[in-house]
Amino acid sequence: MIIVPEFDLKDPGHASLDAKAVEPQLPSVVNRVEIPYADDPPPAYNAPASPPPPLSPSLAPPPPLDVRPTNHFSLSKPDGRIRGSYVIDPSLKIPAQMLAPLEKDETEKTRRNLSLHTHDGSIDANVWVLSDDGADCKCRGRVRVNVRTEDGNVGLRLHSTAPNAYTPRTPIQLSLRTADGHISLALPRSFTGPLTIRLADGRKRFSPAFSAATTVFSESHGVSRCFVGDFANSGWADAPGDWTGDEAEVVSDDGGLRIEFDDEKREKEICREEERSENGKGKGKGKAKGLFGRLMST
Fold this sequence. Notes:
Strand order of the largest sheet: 1-3-5-7-13-9-12-11
Number of domains: 2
Order of helices and strands: EEEEEEEEEEHEEEEH
Structural class: alpha/beta
Shape: globular
Number of helices: 2
Distance between the termini: 97 Å
Number of strands: 14
């Protein structure tokens, strides 16, 4: 408020003043700044997208503590069965004098990380492939596994130490063959790559979980050509000849084949344990109820 001084309006020395003339001329537009109070809600903003749910860990068995890791291991027998557990660490450097002679189809660059061969006998093997988490995916070479017998059944269970399919791991190149026998094969659930099956006289069977994850492209004259995993996003179709991921070829000249994932048996065991636990709880409650009823009736 502006106080207008009192003038003697009759005084000729002073011009008459109009009260409106001394009022300040305020602009017609006033900028207002609102000061938020502590109780006011915060300004609206776009909340970041919630992260995806964590992936469930693999139920595959861990490597045995009593088996030392090795690399470029070769076991060849003229006859007799092969049975054992093997932990392959592709990062291990083995002195040349400790290595077996190269096979005819091998070079130093393509030397197999694991080779099991018997001329007359069955093969039963558990194999763990350790992953080099520090290596770049493009620089991570494949682990070559070769298992073959001329006369006998083959049971091979391949395990990876990667916890799930989205964790980088060492790719596996598998060659499995028996001239006369059945094959039971378990692959890591994270296995992603082409699978070729050659059965001269036998039928193949996939577990439900493995069948759901496998695309079969053709079946002709005993040869099945498949892809395990996400074929559309794998990149394999763009350059099959340059593929450096997982790959498997399974051959039996006289016998059948069954394939599943390596953690399926563990899943079944857990389900059975849960069922037994639930049944045990129910039985316990029933017994307690019966005992309580008998006590109350006395």
